[in-house]
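Methods — Computational structure assignment.
A single polypeptide chain was analysed. Its primary sequence is given first, followed by the predicted tertiary structure written as C-alpha cells.
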Amino acid sequence: MNSALATIPLLLIISLPQSLLAADTPSPKKPSPTFAIAIKPFLQTHCLKCHGPKKQKSGIRFDQISAYQHKNRQLWTKVHQALVNNEMPPDDRPQPSAKSKSQILSWIQTQQRLSDTAQTRRLNRRELSASLQHLTGLNIDYAAALPEDGKVEGFDTVS
C-alpha cells in the first residue's frame, strides 16, 4: 500500500465520529416550552394529586422537581411512556388536552436529546474496516493496519 492510500483511513477515522454525531442529533423545529411555563402546570393539574406531598403512588413525587435533570431521566422516560400509552392520568381523573399532552411529550424528548444520554461505543476493527470500505468504495482490508481489539469476556464490541 502506498503512503497516499495509507493516509486515507487515518483521515476517515478522524472525521467519522464527528459526522456520525452531527447526523444523529436532530435539532428541534421550534423551541421547547420551559419547565415553569408549560410542564409544571401540567404536573400540578394532572399528576400532583397522586404523586405529590400527600400521596406518592409508585414512589413518584413531582412536587419537588423544578427542572429536567439528567439524574431523573428514567422518571421522565416513564412519564413519556405512561402518557403515550394513555396509562396516566387514570381514566377517573381529568384528562389533558391533546395540545398539552403533545407539548409535554415533545419537551421530554427534547430534554433527553439535549442531555446527551446516549451511550457511544468504539467500533471494533472488523466494523471499522467494513464502514471504511462502504464509505470509500475501495476493497481494502483496513483492519490489517489497525491495532488488535481488546476483549472483555470474549467480546470485542463493548461500550
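Note: Residues 1-7, 14-29 have pLDDT under 50 and may be disordered.
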